[in-house]
Design goal:
The complex is a heterotrimer.
Chain A (H helix, E strand, L loop, with lengths): L21 H9 L5 E5 L10 H19 L6 E5 L5 H18 L7 H11 L1
Helix pairs in contact in A: 1-2
Chain B lengths: L5 H7 L4 E6 L7 H11 L5 E4 L11 H10 L4 E6 L5 H13 L4 E5 L20 H14 L15 E6 L6 H14 L3 E6 L3 H13 L2 H4 L1 E6 L5 H10 L7 H8 L6 H17 L4 E6 L8 H7 L10
Parallel strand pairs in B: 1-2, 1-8, 2-3, 3-4, 4-5, 5-6, 6-7, 7-8
Chain C lengths: L1 E5 L2 H7 L5 E7 L2 H4 L5 H17 L5 E7 L5 H4 L3 H4 L6 E4 L4 H9 L4 E3 L1 E11 L2 E6 L15 H4 L26 H12 L33
Parallel strand pairs in C: 2-3, 2-4, 4-5
Antiparallel strand pairs in C: 1-6, 6-7
Classes of the chains: A mainly alpha, B alpha/beta, C alpha/beta.
Chain lengths: 122, 308, 223
């Protein structure tokens, strides 16, 4: 399969989404990511028992923190996608990209980067 | 005679006793007390005055008891462990006796989280059983908890509450026995609706000889409406209201529900009178004091005995 | 252990509103175990504060550091080089409330508590803690099957259960077990129900906080 997904998505590999912690998602936001999402295995299909369930709870914790600090909680999300389901992986990348584009650039980005982003968007 | 209160005399002379209840106002109005007391005058042997019941701030129970004494009525001072430490309790007890109060009912008290000041700090220095023992020590030893001899001994007739419907049921009679050991002279029970369970409770208490050691009064609260019955069933912890009564109230016209409630209360009074060991009733007509004479008349409990 | 939880970020942001640079100090003691103020939580709070302030256009410099413990002077002393001339406006302590007090005693700089110290307790499961002790200073739990009615009964009854006990739950909330029902069950299980028969005597609270702030002196341990 030669599936396309938006080039703005940068993938960070982890052995299991259970390894993803609150601080990892926060650091991504803090350093200027417009959005960050976790793509875990389907629920009930974790190779390490329940890593994806843990990841889901942590994503919720980050959403709460973002709300508290005045950012849109929608900038972080948890998705479940089977490792063999390439089309869904690409669809999620597009969905999240569209969602984040609608929210606009992160206010934590450097102003010059934001200006360039807005220009490009127009 | 331990205290010589009217209530104690009614019991010792073998009469079936009746106590009423008066909830002090949420304010400083004496008129409210006079009005409620008026309904109870001459129809009950003693009037319980609640102590900030449900943790809602109301006029001091000691003050209201004194007002009743001045009106020629006999109060039964309720005292809870929630708001006073042992210093305040002993002090208030001495003061209450000096004001002519002769009966005291020792309670743990509803938790302050329920009331109108849930932010308050609670005390619970002693529990209800230990409070009973304090009143007994004052009376029988003439000493404070510290061992200090009293200048003037308060001779109280000591009451306690019992809830036959709390869990675990198996321990409820033991707890009654503990209260009697601590010094309770009389017991007023929680409102009784599940008559079968109450009979079972009284049977065990009677078998264990507890009914010989103290006067047990069955708690009766008339149901004003089906709404009240549902509320009591669902929201008052440790209350057991069988569907039978809810259905009975539901079965009559809304305007007739109060009458049906009174009818039920009268039936309940007649039922508890048949139970061995029940020496009286405690009628808690919550915000319905004016119906007390009617209920007691219908139950054949009027006039009240005059004792000396 | 001492169990604590982080204050709401909104409250913390209000505390640090006027500051430009703060030292956020964690503790590797109890609050690490109860996931409230260890290295990890310091990282999360530090990041959250930076995000919030950057978004406001008023950046806050948060320097993160976690001490072995904040309730021993020898560890608190380790902050000295960091606090010397680095321009910190305040220290934010993520320890239980002992930590900020130890830091305040040692250094002339405003100190703010980041946690609400909640109770002495233990973990019922991962992520769930409950209160087990009220530190009354005179343990009596052996009389109650090893369960504490002082800390775990809403009314601290020594002769419970009260009339509000229903279905093993406390009248205060269905979330709270009626400890007296559990004590009863346990005594039945141990075949010691008769031990609950005597009236338990009035407690001496002088060993508790009611006797004033407490202190333990162990001459054998002094240096």
């Amino acid at each position: 399969m030669r599936l396309n997904y938006p080039p703005n998505v940068r993938i960070v590999n982890v052995p299991c989404t259970g390894r993803v912690d609150v601080i990892h998602l926060l650091r991504a936001i803090e350093t200027g990511a417009d959005g960050v999402y976790v793509a875990g295995c389907m629920e009930g299909e974790c190779h390490f028992r329940n890593g994806n369930i843990k990841a889901k709870r942590r994503v919720l914790a980050v959403k709460k923190i973002l709300q508290e600090v005045g950012l849109e909680p929608e900038r972080v999300e948890m998705f479940n996608v089977s490792a063999s389901d390439g089309p869904r992986f690409a669809a999620i990348a597009r969905e999240m990209t569209e969602r984040v584009r609608a929210l606009g650039p992160s206010p934590l980005r450097d102003p010059e980067v934001c200006a360039a982003w807005m220009e490009a968007a127009q | 005679m331990k205290a010589g209160s009217n209530l104690e005399k009614v019991f010792t002379q073998g009469h079936f006793a009746v106590t009423g209840e008066l909830g002090p106002p949420r304010g400083a109005s004496v008129e409210v007390i006079e009005k409620k007391a008026g309904y109870l005058r001459g129809v009950v042997d003693s009037i319980n005055v609640t102590d900030n019941q449900t943790s809602v701030v109301r006029m001091s129970s000691v003050a209201v008891c004194k007002l009743l004494v001045d009106m020629g009525l006999e109060p039964n001072l309720q005292m809870v462990c929630r708001d006073r430490n042992r210093i305040a309790m002993q002090s208030d007890l001495l003061g209450a006796y000096a004001l002519g109060i002769r009966n005291v009912l020792c309670l743990s008290g509803d938790h302050n989280r329920f009331g109108d000041h849930p932010q308050s700090k609670n005390v619970f220095d002693v529990d209800s059983m230990q409070l009973i023992s304090i009143v007994k020590k004052l009376r029988d030893e003439g000493k404070m908890l510290s061992g200090q001899e009293l200048e003037g001994v308060p001779k109280f007739f000591i009451g306690a509450a019992a809830n036959p419907f709390g869990d675990p049921f198996e321990f409820r009679v033991t707890r009654l026995a503990k209260k009697i050991d601590a010094g309770a002279d009389f017991i007023q029970t929680q409102c009784i609706y599940n008559m079968e369970k109450f009979r079972k409770y009284m049977h065990i208490a009677h078998e264990e000889g507890l009914t010989e050691k103290c006067y047990i009064m069955a708690g009766i609260t008339p149901l004003k409406s089906v709404g009240m019955a549902r509320y009591m069933a669902n929201f008052v912890p440790g209350l057991d209201v069988p569907d039978y009564y809810i259905n009975r109230l539901k079965g009559v016209d809304k305007k007739k529900q109060a009458d049906e409630g009174i009818k039920i209360a009268v039936e309940q009074i007649q039922e508890v009178r048949e139970i061995p060991g029940v020496k009286g009733i405690h009628l808690m007509a919550i915000e319905w004091e004016h119906k007390v004479p009617e209920i007691l008349q219908a139950a054949g409990l009027l006039p009240r005995p005059s004792v000396n | 252990m001492v169990v604590a939880e982080r204050k709401p970020i909104e409250e913390i942001l209000a505390m640090v509103a006027d500051f430009k640079k703060v030292l956020l100090v964690g503790c590797k003691g109890c609050v690490t175990v109860c996931c409230a103020g260890g290295t990890k939580e310091v990282g999360i709070l530090g990041s959250a504060l930076r995000i919030a302030r950057k978004k406001q256009g008023n950046p806050l410099e948060v320097v993160e550091h976690t001490l072995e413990r904040q309730c021993d002077p020898e560890y608190v002393d380790q902050l000295a080089p960091m606090l010397a001339g680095n321009g910190f406006d305040a220290v934010l302590s993520m320890a239980c409330s002992v930590g900020p007090q130890f830091i305040a005693k040692k250094y002339t700089i405003p100190v703010y508590p980041m946690l609400n110290t909640t109770f002495i307790g233990g973990a019922l499961e991962h992520g769930v803690w409950a209160e087990f002790c009220q530190s009354c200073g005179n343990c009596i739990i052996h009389n109650f099957g090893g369960l504490c009615p002082i800390a775990r009964c809403s009314k601290s009854l020594m002769n419970g259960p009260c009339g509000g006990s229903a279905n093993k739950k406390c009248e205060v909330s269905p979330e709270i077990d009626c400890i007296w029902h559990l004590i009863y069950d346990r005594m039945v299980e141990l075949g010691q129900l008769e031990k609950l028969r005597p009236v338990f005597p009035i407690k001496d609270w002088s060993t508790s906080r009611d006797g004033g702030p407490r202190k333990i002196v162990r001459e054998d341990l002094k240096l």
